[in-house]
Amino acid sequence: MARVRPRSGTRREGGSAQVASCAIERTEFLVAQRLSGVARDVGVRVAAVAVLLIIWEGLALAAFWPPVVLPSPGQVWDQFVVTLTDGYAGSTVVERLGVSLRRVGLGSVYGIGIGVGLGLVMGLVPLVRTITEPLVTFLRALPPLAYLSLLVIWFGIDEEPKVYLLMVAAFPPVAVATAAAVTGVNRQYVEAAQALGGNRWHVIGTVILPASAPEIITGVRIAVGIAYSSVVAAETVNGADGIGGMVLNAQRYNQTSTVILGLIVIGLTGLLIDTLILLVQRVLSPWRGLV
Question: What's the confidence (pLDDT) of residue 291?
Answer without folding.
Answer: 42
